[in-house]
Amino acid sequence: MFQQSALGTSTPFGGARTSTSSKDIEVVSPPEDSISSMAFSPAALQQNFLVAGSWDNNVRCWEVEQTGNTVPKSMQNMDGPVLDVCWTDDGTKVMMASCDKQVKCWDLASNQTIQVAQHDAPVKTCHWIKSPTYSCLMTGSWDKTLKFWDMRSANPIMTINLPERCYGAAVDYPMAVVITAGRHLIVYQLEGKPQEFTRGETNLKYQHRCVAIMRDKKNSPTGYAVGSVEGRVAVQYVHPTQPSDNFTFKCHRVNCANNTYQEIYAVNDIAFHPVHNTVATVGSDGTYSFWDKDSRIKLGSSEQKDQSITRCCFNHNGQIFAYALSYDWSKGHEHYNPQKKNSIFLLPCFEDMKPRSKSSS
């Protein structure tokens, strides 16, 4: 198990590397308010495109060139802060979920948008589902519902009531995982038609903040990782072979006053590498860390940034890691500094995310 101590210690992880910012490339023309969501284009597109949603009500799209330089391509506006974005599997459209209780579909070729989903409260999540027999949009809202849309009708094809407000979701067909207020976690199976599979449990004692689905060596979804406001991540398998397969580890904590106490920060986002199945976490402490969950080794971490890291994602082949610097309001309005700009950085990550054996660390 990961050593239950602050990340700053190298003892349990055998000399984890510290990444430098020299390789990080800053995205030009960043959002003007806190960055709530990011997503790279799917493998269907030859080029890499990045979209990001923000509390400034906008969704921006950049092309990422082979050099790593970014070119702003377009921007669309919603009538409220944007809480989530996702791509369709063919890379032609982007879904945008907003506090205005709507989800709009942005057709990139025509640069036009159309409303495709509606809730009774802000829409927290949107995910595109591509199965062998159907395609649809899944939306989760603070109105305590999960809805599925085929986008040809103003009404959802299915509505599932949630025990509380949706705080986050992850989709990797045929699995979906939804986290809600009250530390509820529900796993859904999407084959045939979406339906509840199980109510998950974790050892996390504080509010769930983010969730991501992990795959096994056969590249099938096998479980999930959940991050909490208490600087802790739970790794859970849907069908663990033994109880010790499921575990939690501490992260995004800072040792203070000669290690006499720790400052604890929220885990804001989790992303699994699409090739290595190692995992990245980002937090309110302003750092990102890379982990090998199978060997339970920390692969490396960044130096502390001057703002929280709110979101992260990998591009489709795992060559690029993107992370967003924004104020996440975890310290209240009195610590908001409008002089600090919002930023997105890109980092070549394929080698840094490779698994390492304990003996080589």
From TrEMBL:
<keyword id="KW-0539">Nucleus</keyword>
<dbReference type="InterPro" id="IPR015943">
    <property type="entry name" value="WD40/YVTN_repeat-like_dom_sf"/>
</dbReference>
<keyword id="KW-0813">Transport</keyword>
<dbReference type="InterPro" id="IPR036322">
    <property type="entry name" value="WD40_repeat_dom_sf"/>
</dbReference>
<keyword id="KW-0853">WD repeat</keyword>
<feature type="repeat" description="WD">
    <location>
        <begin position="28"/>
        <end position="65"/>
    </location>
</feature>
<feature type="repeat" description="WD">
    <location>
        <begin position="75"/>
        <end position="116"/>
    </location>
</feature>
<protein>
    <submittedName>
        <fullName>Protein Rae1-like</fullName>
    </submittedName>
</protein>
<dbReference type="InterPro" id="IPR020472">
    <property type="entry name" value="WD40_PAC1"/>
</dbReference>
<comment type="similarity">
    <text>Belongs to the WD repeat rae1 family.</text>
</comment>
<dbReference type="GO" id="GO:0051301">
    <property type="term" value="P:cell division"/>
</dbReference>
<keyword id="KW-0132">Cell division</keyword>
<dbReference type="GO" id="GO:0005635">
    <property type="term" value="C:nuclear envelope"/>
</dbReference>
<feature type="compositionally biased region" description="Polar residues">
    <location>
        <begin position="1"/>
        <end position="22"/>
    </location>
</feature>
<feature type="region of interest" description="Disordered">
    <location>
        <begin position="1"/>
        <end position="28"/>
    </location>
</feature>
<keyword id="KW-0498">Mitosis</keyword>
<keyword id="KW-0677">Repeat</keyword>
<dbReference type="InterPro" id="IPR019775">
    <property type="entry name" value="WD40_repeat_CS"/>
</dbReference>
<feature type="repeat" description="WD">
    <location>
        <begin position="267"/>
        <end position="292"/>
    </location>
</feature>
<keyword id="KW-0963">Cytoplasm</keyword>
<dbReference type="InterPro" id="IPR001680">
    <property type="entry name" value="WD40_rpt"/>
</dbReference>
<dbReference type="Pfam" id="PF00400">
    <property type="entry name" value="WD40"/>
</dbReference>
<dbReference type="GO" id="GO:0005737">
    <property type="term" value="C:cytoplasm"/>
</dbReference>
<keyword id="KW-0131">Cell cycle</keyword>
<feature type="repeat" description="WD">
    <location>
        <begin position="116"/>
        <end position="159"/>
    </location>
</feature>
